[in-house]
Amino acid sequence: MPRVHSARDERFGGYLDDFEIGEVFRHWPGKTVTEADDHLFCLLTMAASPLHIDRHFAATEMAHGRNVVVGTYIYSLLLGMSVPDISGRAVANLGLSDLRHLAPLFHGDTLYGETEVLNRRHSASRPGEGILTVRTDGFNQDRLKVCTFTRSVLLPVRQGKDA
Known about the structure:
- Helices cover 23% and strands 33% of the residues.
- It is of the alpha+beta class.
- The protein has a domain at 4-33 and 80-156: Hotdog Thioesterase (Thiol Ester Dehydrase, Chain A, Roll).
- The chain is elongated and about 60 Å long.
């Protein structure tokens, strides 16, 4: 049975051979997203859509009647939450795929993340390193999945070990 981690173990990231396919990491802590967090991120990244920063617009024009948190911030938070457990030792981030926003996150909601190990393999071109592929899912405080994505990272292999 794969290991399930409810909090970061005594490591920051890991070596490729530390991970098992099917292993799940529940990242801690979660993050309650405030209106100020969302507005600052939107303004810093020039994503200042009224969907995110205009309360009157949201109240009068949007189905839920309130602002939604910008998706790139949700993704950034989930990626950051996963670093201590997954990619803290990464040599490089190799790619991202299947990023989907499945439900809205609103100001005042709390975002939680968990990551499942999907695959690991030695690098064909970089001796002593390998590729870890994981899927990260984000949930609100009611356990509604709001975001999911898959990513691959290049990690070192412990000396003398096979992945």
